[in-house]
Amino acid sequence: MCFYDKISELCSKKGISITALAVELGLSKGTPTNWKKMIKPPRANTVKAIADYFGVSVEYLTSDSEENKKTALDIKTNAVFLDNTKIRALPLFESVSAGFGVTALEEIDGYVPCYIESDYEAENSICLKVWGDSMSPKIESGDIIQVLKQSSVDSGSIAVVLIDGEEGLVKKVVYGKSWIELHSINPAYPVQRFKGIDVTRVSVVGLVKRVIKEL
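The chain above was modelled as a monomer; its predicted structure follows.
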């Protein structure tokens, strides 16, 4: 049984379509067709997300051995299903560049389904599409990030920040006694340090909770 057939079987027993599964996991509707036609194999993080969704092992989805041909639905003690009521449609904004800041607010570009257990977190979360390569390879241009809106983060956290209330950036935020540094993951970009009164130019607007990559 191939990868696509295993997912089809799991979807059938759960009572959802494979297209609906793709949408819930933040994938395009055409992604299952690529799996079926073997045009493009799924990424490792996609396989892990599907395994977590159905409560099966990654090995079950990727292996053809007889030992792994039982689904988690046959082994009920191993099955863990997500509560569909916790799938939240978060508004998507195309507003923050990881490399060169852009306007931080704009109209909603769409909605992204995300699994969030906390009602408070869901109400205070948005999704942003990132452009630029300063946070590559962790966050690549075109990736979507799930952001929890908050005004402070721990040192070393990846956050969305505003400079002078206008320029929006995604950076690792590092604090010192009298300074704030904004670090890029891509070593080609220099560290930005703000000292003294210039510290007030930087304001944290959200904590990056998740990176959603398109296939």
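Residues 3-14 form the longest helix (12 residues).
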